[in-house]
Amino acid sequence: MFCWHAFSRAGPLPTFDQAINDALRICGGLPLALKVLGDYLYRFRDIMQWKSEVAFFKENGVTAQTNQGVISVLRRTYVHLATVEWLGGYWSS
């Protein structure tokens, strides 16, 4: 489910393995968290951007198991909406 939202495909890109594992730990297996975080990370095509975003959530103790964790993810995705635009099938910042 996460990979469908993050990559629009069934499996991960090879270089993203560790970042994906970290993102899945943040989501705690919760379907809505998998969807929201996957959709958020979809706009980042570079592994360094992914690592930076996942590190932000890890450093701030964000998990889908707490209300504060969910609110943090939603707040960050909302803030980034103003900095990206949809360009024919992918997000550009």
Automatic annotation (TrEMBL):
Give the superkingdom in one word: Eukaryota
InterPro entries referenced in this protein's UniProt entry, alphabetically: Apaf_helical, P-loop_NTPase
Q: What is the protein name given in its UniProt record?
A: NB-ARC domain-containing protein
Native source organism of the sequence: [Myrmecia] bisecta
